[in-house]
Amino acid sequence: MKTAEEIKNAIEAAVPGARVELVLNPSPAAQHSLRIDAAHATAVALFLRDDKELELDFLSNVTGVDWPEREVTEKVKVTRTVAKSVDGPEGEPEGQSVQQVEETVEETRKRIEPGCLEAVYHLFSMEKKHGPVVIRMKTVNRTDRVELPSLTPVWRSAEFQEREIFDLYGIVFTGHPDLRRILMWDAFKDHPMRRDYLEPDDFEYEPTPHDQVLARAAAHAAQAPQNEGAAQ
Amino acid sequence: MKNLTIPSDHDLEFGSCATRPEGWNRPPHIEPDGEGELLEVAMGPHHPSTHGVFRMDLALDGERVIRLKPVFGYLHRNHEKIGETVSYLAMMPYTDRLDYICSLTNNWAYALAVEKLAGIAVPERAEYIRVILAELTRVINHSSAIGFLIQEMGASGTPLMYAFREREKILDLFEELTGSRMMCNYMRFGGCRVDVTASWIERTRKLVASLPRFIDEFDSLLSSNEILMARTQGMGILTPELAVNAGITGPMLRASGVNYDLRKVDGYGVYNRFKFRVPLGEVGDIYDRFMVRMLEMRESLAILEQALKEIPGGPVQDVKTKSRGLRPKPGEAYGRIEAPKGELGFYLISDGGPNPYRYRVRPPSLINLTVLEDMCLGHNVADVVLIFGSVDIVLGEVDR
């Protein structure tokens, strides 16, 4: 079978304008994946399914992954010009002069990596008996722009699995024929598989909650993240 | 079925979907005949035929099914979220509770995924033990699945009790080896928890030698039964094109004539050392699914015989393997096995910590339900029960 790199080139040759990014997997499994852009996702999926050499007719697994906003600390090598006093010849004090010297130092920088939701698809070929080819797509953010194109029209096996991601992660799959909650009940709010999901504070049952219980519940509710925009 | 609108392009060669009209893989639209009103029926969640708590929302035109929507989640406990909060090893007993009839294959699939993620090797003896246990599990699952199917046809008890009689004997062996009959919690990363004894192998060999007699009995009791044939042949047909597109796996896929068995394709464990055949159906109806399971049991016995004969000595787990406190390097892995119900996969993402960052189960039971509506449309309610029974699901795995 083609390597991930070759599949990337094949996609870019076949689908004009498609941006494909190779995501390396450092684990011993070495199942590298391809991140495709949402705008060309359906065209890329059709190519992967119908290409005579790849023929990835079997979409096995569809998964959501939550990547909350996080602070990344990284070490960067920086070259900068520093003013340094240099000794003059023979160590005479009057020979000292200030010079501009370039030096490379390591600097620790912190930056905020924006959060996103990701959908991961594992493809195999039943015809050619190879795989997996892993493709992934990510949303713009985690709050109000959580749409991704549905691949259910291409592979029917995504139907229930994309519904499950919608239910538990809150990714809205546009073009899905029947996007409803699947495991939680319809009136349920929020998405339990998100990393910052807060379980409801209903363990202590009181017929008419008051005082301490109400105060605790209010404090609890204040911690919950405000996931707006995701379909409720 | 004059009102079915199925695209008539079955002469297309298998696998090529490019020339198909858009929406070919959706359930067909059926027009009511216009006499009388449609009846909406919620079948379940407490219904004897639903194998647990499962609901089918049906729209009926007389007896004919016009629409069917499966509803589940009654047993949902967010298994995957639990997976993110406990260590790799502590998740092993939870996997028993997915498909609680086949706990040992669940263990194996999870262990395989972690072994891929962390690059752990498995000693040969452990691989043989895994094969033996998985094939015994397959016999349990297929015989019970057939038993339940016949039960739903109205043969109260008899075939199911025949299946359970043999299941008891196998469960006794499981209990002796693992300490538990159903929640075995036996596999470990890079091997198995305890070694099997020579006497256990000897008794397993004896049991395996006696099982063909049971299958012959089962076969002669059922396979040519006139009522069973009348009710299952030509019923709930699933075309190979749709089966592949909808990700159907396991006996259900092979009953539709697609030769795809992960034991052959991936050859995981030591499966490529054994000689066995992959039974395939021709029509893809309930009878084929029943028959494929019946034949697969015989092939399982063939594998068992070879494995019990060839099992080598040695350790069942490398002593240096770190099960407890395992922290795989950052990365991800997808591991899958041919569980009795279909492809059972585990997808793990590690961020270098003691817990998985993401723990995902690919449940064959859930995905095999995708085409339930397609298979049932146009049939009578009584047949819906049979078609549903032939899918063979366990709700512990569907709902997770």
Strand content of chain A: 25-35%
Mean of the pLDDT scores of chain B?
87
The CATH homology group name of the largest domain in chain A: NADH:ubiquinone oxidoreductase Nqo5 subunit
Class derived from helix and strand content of chain A:
alpha/beta
Largest sheet of chain B: 3 strands, antiparallel
Helix content of chain B: 40-55%
CATH architectural designation of the largest domain in chain A: 2-Layer Sandwich
Q: Would you tell me the overall average pLDDT of chain A? A: 83
SS-based structural class of chain B? Answer: alpha+beta
CATH topology of the largest domain in chain A: Beta Polymerase, domain 2
What's the CATH topology label of the largest domain in chain B?
A: Cytochrome-c3 Hydrogenase, chain B
The best one-word shape of chain B is globular
Output the number of helix runs of chain A: 4
User: Architecture of the largest domain in chain B, according to CATH?
Assistant: Orthogonal Bundle
Number of domains of chain B: 2
- Through-space gap between termini of chain A: 42 Å
